[in-house]
């Protein structure tokens, strides 16, 4: 049986996740991920015709909060884990472009 | 370029098709998924960078998001205003991508179950008077969270060779509205954008300050070209992140000709994976190609396991519907139709929701609408401009405006006195001031008293013998000078209409 997840797909996923992997690691993960996908594929044997996809395991809806603001972290606390900061900002390597803009 | 006659050299016709994606930051007090304060709320506009964060916003391990009820309601209110079908049930999905402005490495969004489904609004097809209305169909509007801000300059504009991140905006509730490609001119794109901004401001769901990025527009543009009896569609181009109407107009206008030129050169037409992303260069007034962004399937959307679905029942929907204010288009129609205001005044009153409400409360004081509009837009607007505030923020109350109108209608004050009173009542601590006593105190009440009037008339005739003679001989034009003399003699307190009548009696009897 051929590998369910190819080395190429792992390389692509690693790029999307900004992970730097060696060729050896890529192949290693491709084999592991193929096993996992194969295992989960067992589920595909079930007939789910007409079954509504489930959005959440708990049968709850509308867990809402009132729109009341509360103080959170100070700037110093918020930046405490940042490897580098600059004048009250998180400092990162130069990124080109406008930002993700959500 | 007009909606009907689009032409371009080298083709038989070229029709612009624009669908719009609009991100609206909702002005809730707290964020979408946590109670940290929201930077899109006026209380926090000027918050220090990274001061509106909590562990949920910065994606600390173990935190859980909890939905902001008001954000959900605001999204539904916009949906209702756009005549959207509101989903009875919807869920939340994770959109994964890695970028320094996205602390969790995923954005909570709605992939296939938007809170608002199909809808439509009517907009004027152009800015010309009497332009026909046209329908813009809404595909969907879904609720999500905004990302933070990535900056490439130090605060104060200094160059830096790294980037810095302000996460204040991260987690602000964001409504993404998507239209069908129904817009056909750059002008229509702007009219639609302005209409949407006005709707959001009247609903009170956004301050709509474009410079602050409260609304960001992303037009998806292509051109349908006819040549030699054949139809060609150019590949769709999405322009990212436009935050002014000028930029929307410029970018759409530029894409129109750029796409036709490109088609004439390459013949490339719409197809799979042909969509590209461009940015707008405000200085050069051109669009420029941007980096490749992950395709939709690369965002690895999946249902967010931290959030349960949302259900909107009829009672909730009815409650929200009953709270909806009148929308700008309906207001305009009523002001022009029922109140007989001219379109310019009607637009001015609807432009600013605070002014609209103030105008309505002046009318509720039984001031005739045209008078109310004139008071606010003449006496009020110039003072508001001077102070850099809205007319409704000047301090004068609707009841005081009614009292000014009453004094004027009973000929007890003239128009310059009305203007002066309006100004005095905009001063601090005047909200309980009776207008009549203020007018009396300031000697602004016109004197119609016979003996005083008689003596001013005597004085005026003595000062202006030539004019008096002219009037006696029937040259009535000269009476103006005499009325002026009466006004001067009375220190402005004489009722000019009465003065003229008395002068006429005295000189022609």
How large is the radius of gyration of chain B?
Answer: 30 Å
Judged by helices, strands and strand pairing, the structural class of chain B is: alpha+beta
The average pLDDT value of chain A, as a whole number, equals 88
What is Rg of chain A?
Answer: 22 Å
Number of structurally distinct domains of chain B: 3
Task: Outline the low-pLDDT stretches of chain B.
Answer: 1-5
Termini separation of chain A: 41 Å
- CATH architectural group of the domain at 7-44 in chain A: Orthogonal Bundle
Number of helices of chain A: 3
Which strands sit side by side, in order, in the main sheet of chain A?
2-3
Q: Largest chain-chain contact?
A: A-B, 42 and 73 residues
Number of strands of chain A: 3
Say how many strands of chain B there are: 17
Your description of this structure?
The complex is a heterodimer of chains A (102) and B (509). With 102 residues, chain A is mostly helical. The model of chain A has no long low-confidence stretch (mean pLDDT 88). Chain A starts with 6 loop residues before the first helix and ends in a 10-residue tail after the last strand. Helix content of chain A is 33%, strand content 8%. Chain A has a domain at 7-44: Orthogonal Bundle (Histone, subunit A), CATH 1.10.20. Chain A is flat and about 55 Å long. Chain B has 509 residues and is an alpha+beta fold. Chain B folds into three domains: 13-315, no CATH class; 326-441, no CATH class; 450-508, Arc Repressor Mutant, subunit A, CATH 1.10.10. Chain B is built from 15 helices and 17 strands. Chain B is elongated and about 95 Å long. Chain B starts with 12 loop residues before the first strand and ends with a helix. Classes of the chains: A mainly alpha (102), B alpha+beta (509). Chains A and B meet through strand 1, helix 3 and strand 3 of A and strand 2, helix 1, strand 8, strand 9 and strand 17 of B.
